Each structure stands twice: as C-alpha cells, then as structure tokens.
Task: structure prediction
Amino acid sequence: MIREMDLSDVERVRAIAVATWRNTYSRFIPEEIQDKVLKDAYSTEAMNNRFSSSLNLVAENGEEIMGYAFFSGNLSDKDVFLESLYIHPNHQGKGLGKLLLLSGLEQFKEPATLSLTVYKGNPNISFYEKEGFEVMKENKGEFYGHPVVFTLMKKNLDNLVK
Result:
C-alpha cells in the first residue's frame, strides 16, 4: 500500500535511509560522511520542512514501511523534482520504486517532467534508466569535504498514463 507519510513514520524512514545508504554508497562515500549527511537530511527541522513543502509517500505492508519517496514542489507544478526514493535493501527489486514513482506523479495535476539527482557510482542508476530517465548533466560537488559527482537525470512525462 502506498500512502502519505505522517509524523509517526519518521523514525522508520530514517532507519530505511541509513540501511539504504550503507548498502548503496559505502563503496564510495565513507560511513562518517554518510552519518553527517543523514543526520542533516533527516533532522527534525529538515523533516518538518518536507512536511510543509513536499509530497512524502511511504510503501508499507501491514506495519512495515519498506520504502519512501519525497517529491518537491506544489502539486500544480509542471516540472516535478524527486528528492528521494529509497527502498530498504530487503525489499528492492519488487516493483516498489516504480509504484512509489507512479503514485507520486498521480498526485500532481499535469506533470510534464520528473527530475532527480543521483550520485555517480550509485548502482541504482540503471533503475532510473529503465524507467525512461536520461542523464542531463553531471556536477562535481562535495559532502563535508568528501568529493562526489551529482548526476542530474530527467524524464519527459508526455506519455504518462494516469
């Protein structure tokens, strides 16, 4: 089941973020850097900001949250930005990511494009490519002094079936 996230979900979403980051990024982002990024990105203040400015969805089965997605912007925006899409490593490959993407986009009035930023080296880039996203550009950046490359991907939604 896909539903809107509420405050009672925050701790479970944080736990999924940690598990997913460890599984996905440990080969190229040191754990101490991951810890700092996650602490800031999932702080109480950051989460409160998301609740007031984003569409936040969770995928759950019974009481277990298996993944989540954060979409930035107003529901009337044409250009939608996917802030985060994380599926717990134990539940990846079951179609939950696609389900969260489609469920989120259905909430927007007339979306034309969906964009996201992913870290170069993330093995899940192939998921986005299968979903029709194309690499638009890469930018060098850093997390707390650790160099990373951000890959901007975009998908045209002209043929989105609602």
